[in-house]
Design a protein that fits this description.
Number of helices: 13
Helix content: 25-40%
Oligomer: single chain
Structural class: alpha/beta
Number of domains: 1
Strand content: 15-25%
Number of strands: 22
CATH topology: TIM Barrel
Largest sheet: 9 strands, mixed
Bound molecules: (4S)-2,6-dioxohexahydropyrimidine-4-carboxylic acid, zinc ion
Shape: globular
Length: 431
């Protein structure tokens, strides 16, 4: 038997209403005991005084680029980035090459994920090849292990086909994760429509591009009776529509990415690919509305849309760079700095958005430190400011607008199924 004892940390486990200093004993991959003080032998002791001990983070929205774009990221490097970010479960989107659009593809991805540092729960495409023409085998993919459905990177533009997908999703009890983007309306936009886009002379993406599909998908899910999750909400009206859906008692949830609550388009300093993602950085008004929506419980989840790309691809004008920034190694710090330090959320509420609620949406038995549950645990240091340095990332992607940003909330140790998969510095003492 192998035991890890985490000593005297601030144990934050909203699922069991715990927020108190104490010891956590892990034995054979499970949480064995939590108490104010545990005086027992352990193989490894982690001193956590002054640090937070939380359930491992669960990221519902990441892009691993395997198969097809291994130069951007592999399952292995993406999982290592997750571990470094305190994320113990990740859900990769299906826009790889080939697209993850069949039971065989799901099984292949799960096989590739077998020895990864963190848990990997794949998301399956809605249509074959994400071409938006023909439904994929939703029942078969769910049976093969798909955790959710998504056409991420685009919307299923054909409303009838999308409605059929929602009905299939309802029948198979699998949630739909919607990327909301009206393709025709988006035109060739590369950043938020507005003053800054005009100043830089770049084509804009209006809020309506997102809002019309957010509204459509809520309306159609209501009829189909399935669970709907809106990915990377970036506009104030997306949040408003989710609030309306919740008021009606509909099973609609929403996620916001750290970049959308941290940075507005007014902070784009130059026409450079590191500021380009889809949906784009929005106005200050949208950023404020999203933070309020997180605070009010309208937005349930913080996920990253971790989208690694090659350095050359991103080191050019927004006109030509691909959409997407990396996020796995900065999400907790940005959440802690902007939302907890910023006075919008308490630390337990941040843990709800980054672990408890994602687990609920997936219907998995995670997001808690309760005795007997799998020991997916993260330890973070909260009080010392540090500077984000993308050169330290485990991800192959270094594309982030947050390089050099001063933040709080540094991940110290990440444990998956009772195994230490990341440790910032040598603190473990063997007895
Ligand atoms: O910024 C984004 N990057 N948005 C998306 O919808 C797709 C993603 C990617 O795959 O790079
Ligand atoms: Zn997307
Ligand atoms: Zn995405």
């Amino acid at each position: 038997m192998s035991r890890i004892l985490i000593r005297q940390g601030r144990v934050v486990d909203p699922a069991s209403h715990r927020d108190a200093i104490g010891d956590v004993m892990i034995c054979d991959g499970k949480i064995e005991e939590i108490a104010p003080e545990i005086k027992r032998e352990a193989d490894v002791i982690l001193e956590a005084a002054g640090k937070a001990v939380m359930p491992g983070l669960i990221d519902l929205h990441v892009h691993l680029r395997e198969p097809g774009f291994e130069y951007k990221e592999t399952v292995k490097t993406g999982a290592e980035a997750a571990a470094r970010g305190g994320v113990t479960t990740i859900c990769p989107m299906p826009n790889t090459n080939p697209v993850i659009d069949s039971p065989e593809r799901i099984r292949d991805l799960l096989a590739r994920a077998e020895n990864a540092a963190v848990h990997i729960l794949p998301i399956a495409a809605v249509t074959l090849g994400q071409r938006g023409e023909e439904l994929a085998d939703i029942a078969g993919m769910k049976a093969a292990g798909a955790a959710a459905l998504s056409e991420d990177g685009k919307s299923v533009m054909d409303s009838l086909l999308f409605y059929q997908a929602l009905q299939e999703a309802a029948k198979n009890d699998i949630p739909m994760f919607s990327h909301c983007e009206e393709k025709n309306l988006a035109g060739g936009g590369v950043m938020n429509a507005g003053e800054k886009a005009e100043k830089l002379g770049l084509p804009g993406i209006t809020n309506a591009v997102e809002d019309v599909i957010a509204a459509r998908d809520i309306i159609m899910s209501k009829e189909a009776g399935n669970r709907l999750h809106l990915c990377h909400c970036s506009t104030k009206d997306s949040a408003l529509f989710i609030a309306m859906a919740k008021k009606q008692g509909l099973p609609v949830t929403g996620e916001v990415c750290p970049h959308h609550f941290t940075m507005s388009d007014s902070e784009i300093t130059e026409d450079h690919g590191r500021f380009k993602m889809n949906p784009p950085l929005r106005s200050k008004e949208d950023v404020e509305a999203l933070k309020e929506a997180l605070k009010n419980g309208v937005i349930d989840v913080i996920s990253t849309d971790h989208a690694p790309h090659g350095a050359e691809e991103k080191n050019q004008s927004m006109r030509y760079a691909p959409f997407g920034i990396v996020g796995l190694e900065t999400s907790f710090a940005l959440g802690y700095t902007e939302l907890v330090k910023g006075g919008y959320l308490t630390l337990p509420e941040l843990v709800e958005k980054m672990s408890v609620n994602p687990a609920k949406i997936l219907g998995i038995d995670k997001g808690t430190l309760s005795v007997g549950s799998a020991a997916d645990v993260v330890i973070a240091e909260l009080d010392t400011e540090y500077v984000i340095d993308s050169r330290e990332f485990a991800s192959k992607g270094k594309n982030t607008p947050f390089d050099g940003k001063r933040v709080y909330g540094r991940i110290e140790t990440t444990i998956v199924d009772g195994k230490i998969v990341y440790q910032r510095k040598r603190e473990a003492e063997r007895r």
